[in-house]
Amino acid sequence: xxxxxxxxxxxxxxxxxxxxxxxxxxxxxxxxxxxxxxxxxxxxxxxxxxxxxxxxxxxxxxxxxxxxxxxxxxxxxxxxxxxxxxxxxxxxxxxxxxxxxxxxxxxxxxxxxxxxxxxxxxxxxxxxxxxxxxxxxxxxxxxxxxxxxxxxxxxxxxxxxxxxxxxxxxxxxxxxxxxxxxxx
Length: 184
Known about the structure:
The termini are far apart. The protein has a three-stranded antiparallel β-sheet with strand order 5-6-7. With 184 residues, the protein is of the alpha+beta class. The protein is built from six helices and seven strands. It has helices at residues 4-22, 43-47, 80-86, 90-100, 104-119, 137-148, and strands spanning 70-73, 76-79, 124-126, 131-133, 151-156, 160-165, 168-173. It folds into two domains: 4-47, no CATH class; 70-173, no CATH class. The model has no long low-confidence stretch (mean pLDDT 82).
C-alpha cells in the first residue's frame, strides 16, 4: 500500500514540473507569440517513453509554408531577389535576356519555364480575395511566384487558360489532360 502523503507529493511535483515546462523560454515560439501549454499532469511519464517522432506533410507539426528561394533554368541558377530585379519591367527583362541568354533557344527555355509554372497546375483564382486556392500550398506558392514575375494566371474554363504577361493577355487553348500528377 502506498502512503497518501507520497501520492500527494508526486502530484505536487508533477504540477511544479508542468509549470517549469510552461515557463521554459526554449519552448516559446516567437512567430505565434506562444509558449508550451501543459494540459495533463501525466505528460511527464509519457515523455519518458518516447523513442521515435514521426512527422507528416500535412502541417500538423509545422506551419506548412513554402517559400520560393531559387530555381535553375538552363543550368543557370536564379535567386528570388535576382528574378524580381530583372522582371521589374519588360525592357529590363529583355536586356537581361540578351546579355545572359545570347541565343533565342536559351531565351525560350527561360520563358517556357515560367509559362509552365503559370499554366500547368490545378489552382483556382479566388477573385473576391485576389488570391489563389489550391489543393497544395506548394502549388499555390509556385503560381504566386510566377505572378510576382509578371506571368500571372488569370482564369481557366473548359476550353482555355488565360494568363497575363507584362499586361498582355495570353490565351492558351486547353489540351486534353492525359493524366493528373498530384503535386507532392
